[in-house]
Amino acid sequence: MEIDVVEGRIEERKDEAIVVNLFEGVKKPGGATGSVDKALGNLISETIAMGDFKGKFKEVLLLRTHKIPSPRVLVVGLGEKTTFNLDRIREVSGKAAKHLRDLGLKSFSTIIHGAGIANIPVREAAEAVVEGTLLATYRFEGYKTDKGDDEKKKLDKMTIVEYDKKKIGVIQEAVRTATIVAESTFLARDLVNKPSNDKTPEKLAKLAEKVAEDCGLSCTILSEVDMEKLGMGALLGVAKGSSSPPRLIVLEHKGEGGKPIIIVGKGITFDSGGINLKPSQGLFPLLRMKDDMGGAATVIATLQAVAKLKLRRRVIGIAPCAENMPSGEAQKPGDVVRCYSGKTVEVANTDAEGRLILADAISYATKYGPEAIIDVATLTGACVIALGRKISGLMSNDDRLAQKLEESSKVVGENIWRLPLLEEYGEQLKSDVADIKNVGSRFGGAITGAIFLKNFVGNTPWAHLDIAGTVWTDGEKDSLNKEYVPKGATGVGVRLLTHLIRNWD
Ligand code: BES
Ligand code: ZN
Ligand code: ZN
Question: Which residues contact 482 (CB under 8 A, 6 or more apart)?
């Protein structure tokens, strides 16, 4: 979708539709909505007086008119003033855009919801309008040879109308930034939505190389042979059962140099469980396990955003990729592997594979002497039980890093919640035959998973994001059901980490 910014008054704008807004309980609208109301001969305030429109959060009112150049006016409810925030701007922008798209329109004009009110700076409000609109109207270009009529509906253009000339430059900059962030989120969603047969570790690595080339990142891919030389026994062990060989993707944004921030993402392109095979049905159906590379998708997409935004920080993205399959060559429960760090691990359960590939990738990351390591992984079902499907788990050995992530989380509207790394739980990981084993009991499984990873970070400030619950949405009430997150892959983590890196110091 093309996005334009023009100076002017929305009521004078000629487009297929214009979008304005209303806070709940307001009887006589002011600002841009007030001007439109006046131009319409009080049609909006009369509709409010009749009780037909209240301005409730995400409520929409569509008026048809001949009185102004645009034939349609969509008034979108902002809800109560006291609870208004950036995420509500994303949601109402998404709601409005989808409403107009579904009517079959191609183009509309809008004001920036919330700019100037509730102390929201215009730049942030404009970014939220653009993000909400783009993210909401995302569709996965799937594999259907014939698209249905609804799938053909697509908006081509949004125009942001602003009457204050002084704000135009800031808004244009916000459009540019938010477009990069949204398009990078699309990249993550696309990768996660793809079927496993179209994203083997080799294919993912090729794709990462292409992304790197397009946006000026440097890219190194480690093959099986490289991993053998380096002694990455944990990553190799997981890949053994599959005829698709593993890859370790390393993307680097040089920025202004210095100690890098490193993000590491779990890239299991399909998690069958291995010899500890998962059941086809159950709490999480087996066919969902294509999303087990959500962490890797977040890493590739975030590096794209960081490069396109030309951020000052040096950032490295590492994505260990493998397919976890059972076969005659697969690793077996009880096998012992030697990690890149030299530690030996007893593979007590082949389905706890994410922590194995991450162990090698995280140790590899520490060699860069990073400022911080943040890993993102669909690591445990236990995290989904603990926090549900609207909140990602956060675990960290560093309060400052955890706090930074919590702050970013509030701004971007991606919920995270910190779980404690209780030292005693680590005792569950003691093995009789190796330095450590890869599973504890089912109780507190999100935490023991994180404690396993902590064994590989050394003294580096580190945070772990468990996105098993949030990587995917089926649109149900207990999953992510925001207006700007369509069914399927959510792209969670991209906006969070991009915001974190943008605001690091
Ligand atoms: N990929 C799964 C975690 C997962 C579960 C992601 C549900 C998304 C939805 C992970 O590899 C796994 O299988 N974890 C096991 C760990 C257990 C064996 C300690 C789990 O959560 O059951
Ligand atoms: Zn697993
Ligand atoms: Zn997994």
Answer: 87, 90, 91, 94, 413
